[in-house]
Design a protein that fits this description.
408 residues, alpha/beta, 14 strands, 16% strand, globular
């Protein structure tokens, strides 16, 4: 599956600080890439209704992380999936009377266009679940062969009792896990399962559903094993960041990490499990099931500058839960205009000092709001007539492009 076009960030003088991020599993902030290469897996969309602002928040957040890593001299190997076969996609296609393949393709294309407009750096590998089935089948075969999975009426389940680290990613009590499992696509009440938390690896063929041939019978893959197989193939059994929204910590990241560990015999799968916050709208978490969505494509169609959308998303810390309001976008539009006016000034306050401040803020768990405040202060000086550094406006513009992904 093809990704979207993107341009590498411009180079800046010097080198940024090592990136430190909050790890959900250890509940601490630490350096995420101790070596010269950062291996990042960020869970992608299920393409039945993309791209709302909650999606955009996640992908802009991890784009910010990529930019800070690159500025610090670390290379990035970034992989993202597309869950282009799953219950929500099939349900939406049936509801609207459209072919599920066409729906997935059209929504994935809309997502590509939105990511291009928001200047999100493209992953090196962009893999759909359907095209990953040849990778998924051997993973399930190994889990079965090693006693980490079992058959139940034709379906195949992962046995969490065989995973000594299960629960270590999200750090939740068992009853919390069971409740969330039921809310987020699991089936804890299914009769015959060894443990209510056992996730499905392979769903056997059902009437009127697509299926693929496998040695253990026709069917389609579960969600968690999809990401495990793709990550194993493209990044290996030990990566630096597994990322996504905070609602993915359990069960998705918990289960996919357990699958990888069971196949590879290594733990932990990710050095850092990094999660962006949840975005609300009109008092409730923004979600497809509730229908309270603000779409990037609709805002773009209304003539909103994508850079203002991106700037609005960066105005809150990536781990914060917050509510999207029209005032948030209005403030971002005004801020963008002010920054562009300042970048056109004949000079400004010390540009190297601004760059150092931006690097410090962003290396500290992606503190974008503090970085934005530093640029605001610099812009105030430039617009007030401070021309001490004639090179500062150009450096400010390049830094905002390279580190924040904002084109002025």
């Amino acid at each position: 599956m093809r990704a979207w076009p993107s341009t590498p960030p411009p180079r800046l003088p010097g080198r940024g600080e090592p990136l430190r991020l909050y790890d959900t599993a250890s509940e601490s902030v630490h350096v995420v890439a101790p070596g010269p290469l950062a291996r990042i897996y960020v869970c992608g969309i299920t393409p039945y209704d993309a791209t709302h602002m909650g999606h955009a928040l996640t992908y802009v957040s991890f784009d910010l992380a990529q930019r800070v890593l690159l500025d610090s001299g670390v290379e990035v190997s970034y992989v993202q999936n597309v869950t282009d076969i799953d219950e929500p996609l099939l349900e939406r296609a049936a509801r609207d009377g459209v072919d599920w393949v066409e729906l997935a393709q059209s929504e994935t294309e809309r997502f590509r266009q939105d990511m291009t407009a928001l200047r999100v750096l493209a992953p090196q590998a962009y893999i759909g679940a359907v095209e990953a089935i040849p990778l998924i089948i051997p993973v399930i075969e190994k889990l079965l062969a090693d006693g980490n999975a079992y058959l139940l009426d034709g379906d195949i389940y992962f046995a969490v009792e065989t995973s000594p680290h299960f629960g270590a990613v999200a750090g939740l009590a068992r009853q919390q896990m069971i409740s969330l499992f039921a809310e987020r696509g699991g089936d804890p009440d299914r009769a015959g399962k060894r443990d209510p938390l056992d996730p499905v690896l392979w769903r056997s063929e059902r009437p009127d559903e697509p299926s693929w041939q496998a040695p253990f019978g026709p069917g389609r893959p579960g969600w968690h094993v999809e990401c495990a197989a793709i990550a194993l193939e493209h990044l290996g059994a030990e990566i630096d960041i597994q990322g996504g929204g905070s609602d993915l910590a359990f069960p998705h990241h918990e289960c996919s990490a357990a699958h990888v560990a069971a196949v590879s015999g290594r733990w932990p799968f990710a050095g850092s499990y990094v999660h962006s916050g949840m975005l609300a709208y009109k008092g409730t978490k923004m979600s497809k099931s509730l229908g309270n969505l603000v779409f990037v494509s609709v805002l773009r169609g209304d003539g909103v500058d994508p850079m203002a959308i991106r700037l609005a998303l960066l105005s809150h810390h990536y781990r914060a839960d917050w509510e999207w309001k029209s005032e948030t976008l209005d403030d971002a539009i005004a801020r963008l205009a002010r920054w562009r006016a300042a970048a056109a000034c004949p000079g400004g306050p010390d540009g190297i000092n601004l760059l150092a401040r931006l690097r410090t803020c962003l290396a500290d768990d992606l503190n974008a709001p503090m970085a934005l405040a530093a640029i605001d202060a610099w812009a105030d000086g430039a617009l007030a007539g401070d021309t001490a550094d004639p090179e500062a406006p150009a450096l400010m513009s390049t830094a905002v492009d390279a580190l924040l992904g904002i084109a002025l």
